[in-house]
Model the fold of this input.
Amino acid sequence: MDTTQLLKGVLDLAVLAVLREEDGYGYDILRRLREAGLEEVGDASVYGTLRRLFAAGLLTTYVVPSESGPHRKYYALNAAGRDQLTRSGKLWRSFATTMDSLLDDRGLAA
Done:
């Protein structure tokens, strides 16, 4: 199974989850996703997801000046983003439970 196809379906949820505890700028969010185990996530995918989530009203942004380079645009969850994270998290858990059950029933679980 191609991991990139799985990532496309859950990248919104993963980005919202990463921003749940701490705001972040694009590269920082990418780094945190990779450190969490999503090593195959691409730069363009994360930046595109951030733009889409912002346009959907799920994130707010602010700029922080940097002494060592260009200013950084930080992303933060707003109330709508937190609500979406909760809804999507419940849906994901239900889906994952169903898939685990299917695989267990057929002797395919890890």
Remarks:
- The longest strand covers residues 59-64.
- The mean pLDDT is 92.
- The two ends are 15 Å apart (CA to CA).
- Residues 79-105 form the longest helix (27 residues).
